[in-house]
């Protein structure tokens, strides 16, 4: 009876681990979508701002503090786009894959190094829970890093946007015109 209880506990643990793994896959996909959106918006904003810097355009006559605010805004947008790009760049971890693949096959980078019959035997004979646990921890670290980078992307984009709107108001209206030298 004890063996049956242990097998049931093991089965429940593996099932729970797979559900956690799937949730992390979902979260990672969602943060990638947010980063792609952020990168598109930030890239368009950068192109627009640069175009508005041409002769006789909105940002072409900025001087003094407003020129510094303009560059702060533009650089903020560029760094924001860089953070967003870092989120979606694939992480293949190719450095240690060959060595790690002897004990791992959940990650596609490891599984591609197996042949089908050896993998079949491993799936039947090996306890997958330790491998799933390692995968969950690794994916959690990746997902956390991606989420932090997307946060920084949005924060910096907001900062850049506010700075550039203020510059636009200063350059294009008399409302803030008294601040221009």
Question: How would you explain this protein's 3D organization?
Answer:
The chain is mainly alpha-helical and 181 residues long. It has one domain (2-179). The chain is built from six helices and no strands. The longest helix has 50 residues, at 2-51. The model has no long low-confidence stretch (mean pLDDT 89).
State the end-to-end CA separation: 87 Å
Number of strands: 0
Q: Identify the overall geometry.
A: elongated
Radius of gyration: 25 Å
Classify the helix fraction into a percent range: over 70%
Oligomer: single chain
Tell me about the biggest sheet? none
How much beta, percentage-wise? under 5%
Mean pLDDT comes to 89
What class, by secondary structure content? Answer: mainly alpha
The parts where pLDDT drops under 50 for at least 5 residues are: none
Number of helices: 6
Domain unit count: 1
Query: Which H/E pattern describes the elements?
Result: HHHHHH
């Amino acid at each position: 009876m004890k063996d049956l209880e242990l097998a049931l506990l093991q089965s429940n643990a593996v099932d729970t681990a797979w559900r956690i793994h799937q949730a992390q896959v979902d979260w990672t996909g969602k943060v990638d979508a947010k980063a792609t959106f952020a990168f598109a918006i930030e890239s368009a904003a950068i192109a627009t701002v640069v175009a508005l810097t041409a002769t006789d355009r909105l940002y072409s006559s900025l001087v003094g503090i407003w020129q510094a605010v303009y560059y702060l805004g533009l650089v903020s947008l560029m760094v924001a786009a860089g953070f967003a790009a870092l989120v979606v760049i694939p992480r293949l971890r190719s450095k240690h894959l060959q060595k790690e693949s002897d004990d791992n096959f959940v990650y596609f980078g490891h599984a591609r190094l197996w042949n089908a019959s050896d993998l079949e035997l491993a799936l039947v004979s090996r306890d997958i829970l330790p491998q799933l646990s390692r995968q969950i921890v690794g994916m959690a670290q990746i997902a956390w890093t991606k989420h932090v980078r997307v946060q920084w992307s949005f924060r910096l984009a907001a900062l850049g946007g506010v700075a550039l709107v203020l510059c636009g108001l200063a350059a294009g209206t008399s409302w803030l015109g008294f601040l221009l030298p």
